[in-house]
Amino acid sequence: MMPVPLDQEHVLAVLAAVKDPEIPTISVVDLGMVERVEVSESAPRLTVELIPTFLGCPALEVIRGRALHALVEAFELDQSDCLVKFGLSRPWSSDRVSAAGRERLRAWGMAPPPMATVAQFVEGSIAVACPLCQSLDTEVQNLFGSAACRALYYCRSCRNPFEVMKPI
């Protein structure tokens, strides 16, 4: 079997299989966490910079480790030839979640982040569609869900609670 070429396209394809440990249907690519991929002739041969969704997220080190492992395996690199790090040069925004990622969130039962400002979301002045029945007859139950990036909503139509990824 021929080794996978070490280039940006193949690196992104490998990272597209690295799932968020808290939301296993969405990858770091679909979340918009990949900020930079750099391939070099010298060590480290591959540098990947990720943007943390939330600085205090306990899953960040798991994500970094999974990305590193996937890249080392796919490209048959020594760990010293691959650097996966979190950069803080630019903050992550929920606008970075891809269209495919938004659909994967819905399919998992979580509403994707609404296209709204944080203030609109906190005030409850925007409608959030239920990922289960698509009704807009929903209400916020708690702005603080099971993780820092989520809020808890209730759908009056299908009578189910659901989580929403917060807009940032």
Order of helices and strands: HEEHEHEHEEE
Low-confidence stretches: none
The chain-level mean pLDDT equals 94
The rounded Rg comes to 18 Å
The percentage of residues in β strands lies in 15-25%
C-alpha end-to-end distance: 43 Å
The tally of beta strands, per DSSP, is 7
Walk me through the structure.
The protein is built from four helices and seven strands; from the N terminus they run αββαβαβαβββ. The chain folds into two domains: 8-92, Fe-S cluster assembly (FSCA) (GMP Synthetase, Chain A, domain 3); 109-165, no CATH class. The relative contact order is 0.15. The termini are far apart. Helices cover 24% and strands 20% of the residues. The strands form two sheets. The chain has a four-stranded mixed β-sheet with strand order 4-7-6-5. Strands 1-2-3 form a three-stranded mixed β-sheet, covered by helices on one side. The chain is elongated, with a radius of gyration of 18 Å. The protein has 168 residues and is α/β, with parallel strands linked by helices.
